[in-house]
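Render this sequence as a predicted structure.
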Amino acid sequence: MKTKDKLSTVDKYRFLAPIYDYLASLVLGKAFHESKKTFLEIIQPGDTVWVIGGGTGAILPEILKRCGKNGKIIYMEASNKMLEKAKGRVSLDYQSRVEFICSEDFSLPKEGEIDVVITQFLLDVLTDYSINSLFQRVKQKVSPSTSWLFLDFYPVKDKQWLIHLMITSFSLLAKHPRKELPDYDEFFKNWGWGEKKAVSFEKGFYKAKLYRLAPKAIKSETISLK
């Protein structure tokens, strides 16, 4: 098991990490955790899977089982505390198949392509600039056959109070800068990703989507990050 540290800022989740899973279950219920398994069946033996913002690693065992002994997981998380909890989910027999990276700039070595990208409840805490930066980094590592498994909150009317509560709480506790949810669909469209499947949970409060690059995906340089 390899670990790389590319993070120099204070760990914004140092207080939340020990109770994160408990709070998520208390506020969002069992469906929240079950939703993270959506579309994992597309992972094939031998695949290289890039998990970005994976938190405490609840889905790590399932991904390890699906990508098999010849597969690889690159597990990227901005919080050292979260990363430590994720490492605890990997037994000694599987540690050589997971590379843990503590980073918030989404950069990977240039060698090799990614078969599956996974972002779950990540884009909702990123600024628009950081979301575009993420898409740009991903674009450098994928092929036409790469799948992107996306899962996040959507602004449904009867959950506006809960969305406001979560945004305010994470702004105070983890210094998240967002004041509203991003327009995820627009970002995927602008960067050339086409939606192939979608599953809604809690009447559309959060949705899992499977994306693949559209035949005429736009070039990353058409979106300025300046």
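Summary. The helical segments are 20-28, 30-35, 60-67, 80-87, 128-139, 160-174, 184-190. The first helix runs from residue 20 to 28.
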